[in-house]
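Hi everyone, sorry if this is the wrong subforum. Our group has a chain we'd like a structural model of before ordering constructs, and none of us has done structure prediction before. Sequence below.
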Amino acid sequence: MKLEIITPDKKLYEGTVRSAVFPGSEGSFGLLDNHAPMIATLKAGKVELLEDNSKKVEFTIKGGVVEVLKNKVIVLAE
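Answer:
Right subforum, don't worry. Here is the predicted structure as tokens:
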């Protein structure tokens, strides 16, 4: 799935990932390919990504919102 992480200052990440784990405001949750459409709020914590080449990537955020639609994930983060 395609994933973008955007902050008010810059685009932190853009690429294709196998999976992603987010610090949801109601608890941590993960996304895989073809996930159902959703919108969720995020709390401070780590975003963990597993890229298609099996490389693990982590980002620390202060909060935000994630949208999943048609195998594309957009994160608006602080």
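For your construct planning: The mean pLDDT is 95. The beta strands are 2-6, 11-24, 27-32, 38-51, 56-69, 72-77.
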